[in-house]
């Protein structure tokens, strides 16, 4: 699968947990790129009308997502949208609407989106249940929520600590213990899988979901 990854010179760090540079750094880039490729795989070669990426960070995934929808939206808590609009313009993304707001409290109307995507986002939201409620509010009845989330594991913790130079719980607290249960309690699972499929079921690193409203 060929993934459109922007030139890193066009990306700007937007906060302490924006590690976009990892996507270009060996060997951690293979873990990073796995997440994006898994999301694209879960799109099932379908083009959506309205697509929201929650937690866009530096905007690294937007040019690729734009190929899979008619109208692209993105939101994040930072205020670096001018640089991301410039990035989108550089890659010919014509229909893109960006806003500085958190996924747990947006100003989007009810049932706005056919698809909502979140890549390693929910573990950083203070109240995951509140974010899930908001996602369900703005997702169409027949829409999908596709996400990939890091789990609490010694393997992943070792990788994260090596690159961030701090314990993972310092950034995400205990949210990695909660996110899967909350997702499965609040949505209907269309697809679920693990990084390192067989081993990952018992020692999860990343878990991905394609979900529908229940």
From TrEMBL:
One of its GO terms (biological process) is methylation. Residues 52-146 form the Methyltransferase type domain. GO terms for molecular function: S-adenosylmethionine-dependent methyltransferase activity. Keywords: Methyltransferase, Transferase. SUPFAM superfamilies: S-adenosyl-L-methionine-dependent methyltransferases. Gene3D superfamilies: Vaccinia Virus protein VP39. It comes from the Bacteria. Signal peptide: none annotated. InterPro entries: Methyltransf_11 (IPR013216), SAM-dependent_MTases_sf (IPR029063). Pfam families: Methyltransf_11 (PF08241). PANTHER family: METHYLTRANSFERASE (PTHR43591). This is Class I SAM-dependent methyltransferase. The lineage of its organism: Bacteria, Pseudomonadati, Bacteroidota, Chitinophagia, Chitinophagales.
